[in-house]
Amino acid sequence: DNLDTYKSGAICIPYDIDKVIREYAIGFSHSFYEKHAARQIALEGCEKMKKKLISYDCKCEIIL
């Protein structure tokens, strides 16, 4: 039996798109058997990194 695995990635997209950004918050997941779980883990990772690293307003969005 072969089960599919899912990967997902998220990045924090700034609200001010004209601002030059040098640091980004990202989150990723791999080897999940459910697409929803892979996306949720990627978003949670992005949100955690955002709280620790980012000083600008942004929203974590799935990109992969």
Please describe what this structure looks like.
By secondary structure, the protein is an alpha+beta fold. 30% of the residues lie in helices and 33% in strands. It has 1 helix and 3 strands; from the N terminus they run ββαβ. Strands 2-1-3 form a 3-stranded antiparallel beta sheet. It is elongated. The chain starts with 5 loop residues before the first strand and ends with a strand.
Shape: elongated
Helix/strand class: alpha+beta
Helix content: 25-40%
| Sheet with most strands | 3 strands, antiparallel
| Spatial strand order of the main sheet | 2-1-3
Q: For the CA atoms, what is the radius of gyration?
A: 13 Å
- Find the count of extended strands (DSSP E, 2+ residues): 3
Low-pLDDT residue intervals, each spanning 5 or more residues: none
Mean pLDDT: 90
Question: Kindly, what is the distance between the CA atoms of the first and last residues, rounded to a whole number of angstroms?
Answer: 26 Å
Strand fraction band? Answer: 25-35%
How many individual helices?
A: 1
Instruction: Give, in order, the helices and strands.
Output: EEHE
